[in-house]
């Protein structure tokens, strides 16, 4: 029963996130079980683009680029920027005395924000779930 619920939760993850998470878990497991070494996960652009070496490692494809960067011990600016953004957007504003430092540009709000719902909007009968007038009636106790 627990397996089924875990499986259902796993299948509800969006496909790209599910593939990335699976690749990270499998890559970590393969390294811990010593099926591959961290060196085999090394991504070397010079070897790939100048010497036309294949992107795939000998035993396992190098899919988890972010994890590869951590394994190599090199600096990945994308990971650093992501952590800084998370701290400034989600952690710091919720601290006592914290403020929201980052402001979303108005052009992005205009493009991506959904319009406010009109409280006076009355959907057509064919747009109502099941064709019923849900929400119409009297309040309980009133």
UniProtKB/TrEMBL annotation:
It is found in: Endoplasmic reticulum membrane. GO terms for cellular component: endoplasmic reticulum membrane. Residues 132-142 have a biased composition (Gly residues). Residues 118-142 are annotated as: Disordered. It is a multi-pass membrane protein. Keywords: Endoplasmic reticulum, Membrane, Transmembrane, Transmembrane helix. GO terms for biological process: response to stress. Belongs to the derlin family. This is Derlin. It comes from Pongo abelii. The gene is DERL2.
């Amino acid at each position: 029963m627990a397996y089924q619920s875990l499986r259902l939760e796993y299948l509800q993850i969006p496909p790209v996130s599910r593939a990335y998470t699976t690749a990270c878990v499998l890559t970590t497991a393969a390294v811990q079980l010593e099926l591959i070494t961290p060196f085999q996960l090394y991504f070397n652009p010079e070897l790939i683009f100048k010497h036309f070496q294949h992107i795939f490692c000998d035993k396992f494809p190098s899919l988890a680029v972010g994890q590869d960067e951590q394994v190599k011990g090199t600096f990945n600016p994308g990971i650093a920027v992501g952590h800084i953004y998370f701290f400034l957007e989600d952690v710091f504003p919720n601290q006592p005395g914290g403020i929201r430092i980052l402001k979303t540009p108005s052009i992005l709000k205009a493009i991506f924000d959904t319009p406010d719902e009109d409280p006076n909007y009355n959907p057509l009968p064919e747009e109502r779930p099941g064709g019923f007038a849900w929400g119409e009636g009297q309040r309980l106790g009133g």
